[in-house]
Amino acid sequence: MTNAVAKKPRLLLYVVLASLILATNFILYRTPVFGPVPEGAVIGSLLDMLIILPLLTYFMIIRKRYSLKYMGVVIFAGFAASYFIVPQQHLADYPFLPYLLIVSEGAFLLFELYIAYTVITRLPRLLKEYRNLASRNSFFLFNIRKAVETSLPDSTAAKVLVTEFSMFHYSLFSWKKKVKIDHGKVFTYHKKTSVNAVYIMIIHAIAIESIGLHYFLHSWNAVVSYILLFLNIYGILFMLAELQATRLTPFLLTEDHLLLQTGFSSSMHLPLSNIKEINHYEGPEKFSRNEQKGLLDARVPDLIQEKPMFEILLHEPQDVHLIYGMKRKVNRIVLNVDEPDVFYHELQRSLHE
User: Fold this and answer.
1) Cα–Cα distance for residue pair 148/326, rounded to 1 Å
2) Which of 2, 153, 195, 291 could crosslink 300 through cysteines, CB 3.0-4.6 Å?
């Protein structure tokens, strides 16, 4: 059984078990199905939220795939679920909970400080490497990732932070920047699409939702309203980063590789030696789930999504870098460009050379 096939039942089982734990605890306190809440039920619920769920998440989702850093988020989510599911009159009997949360998050903060210390001590080398790369081109995401891989090769947490650095760079500090390339040929992929309109519509919708829901939820629970406001602001910054990265990172073709970055949430450094062939795409408009597993769709979102222009087949599966340090392998790429004929002929020429 392949890893891709094995992950689905495990993920499905995790969703079922987690939902069952949350649902049974919610029903216990919020409905009269079980009658009066039995004595000691709160302890059982806290064990479910703070021990069972985090362990379940670790063994079925995080272990061997993601950084332990995510456990801090899982534990915090367990505390949040406890406060939302267990009524306050029951939690009042356990005044130690806030202190337990402080201790847990304090440990997580110490872990974060350790990561920060590691990054700071290697920062001079990292900055030197980044400046060296940035002097050649303006591809911030590729440059910062390469600098991190060179200076902090074993730090999964640092690779996760690349997403945060890139998001803030693109969304807040890149508005006056222009594309700068001193080597290779660039091909834009967004000028003939409505991708800008798509992102602006999404940002507009998030902003309106933020105002309305924040006002509504604040009268019910101020903490929830501010958490949602923070998430919505984060979502707006994420969309702005996607928009700006699309403008500033065209596809780049050099004599030995092809850089493909769509927005800032997915990117690939593709050696030309791994390209088997490039063809004009003649397949269906939509891809099945099985096809999507090994496929990189390098098109931008569009109001009317056109069929891909080209299909690139690879000799060996290649890594696609996703957000927060995640990766997946693909053996097939579909994409559109603003100058299809020039792109096709230049890539064919480079492959034959």
Assistant:
1) 15
2) 195
Measure Cα distances from 255 to 41, 87, 274, 321 in Å.
66, 64, 13, 22
| Pairwise CA distance, residues 253 & 205, whole Å | 36
82/42 Cα distance (integer angstroms): 9
For residue 310, the SS3 value is: strand
Question: Tokens 């079925």 label which residue?
Answer: 60
**Integer Cα distance of 68 and 24 in angstroms:** 28
Tokens of 351: 């492959």
Beta carbons within 8 Å of 339's beta carbon, 6+ residues apart: 187, 188
Q: Nearest-CA neighbor of 54 among 78, 38, 21?
A: 78
AA letter at 238: F
Token pair listed for 313: 């087949």
* Distances from the Cα of 286 to the Cα of 40, 301, 307, angstroms: 53, 14, 8
Q: Which two tokens stand for residue 325?
A: 């340090």
According to DSSP, the β-strands at 251-253 and 257-262 are antiparallel
Determine if residue 245 is left, alpha or beta; phi over 0 gives left, psi from -120 to 50 gives alpha, anything else beta: alpha
> Is residue 315 within a helix (H) or strand (E), and if so which, with residue range?
strand 310-322
Query: Whose CA is closest to 296, among 317, 273, 326?
Result: 317
pLDDT in tens, the chain (353 residues): 444 444 556 777 778 888 888 888 888 877 766 567 676 677 788 788 878 888 788 777 776 566 555 676 777 778 778 777 877 777 666 666 666 656 665 666 676 677 667 767 777 877 888 888 888 888 999 998 888 888 777 667 677 778 888 899 999 999 988 998 888 999 999 999 999 999 999 988 888 877 777 667 666 666 667 777 788 888 899 999 999 999 999 999 999 999 999 988 899 999 999 999 999 999 888 888 888 889 999 999 998 888 999 999 999 999 999 988 888 999 999 999 999 999 999 999 999 87
AA identity, residue 138: S
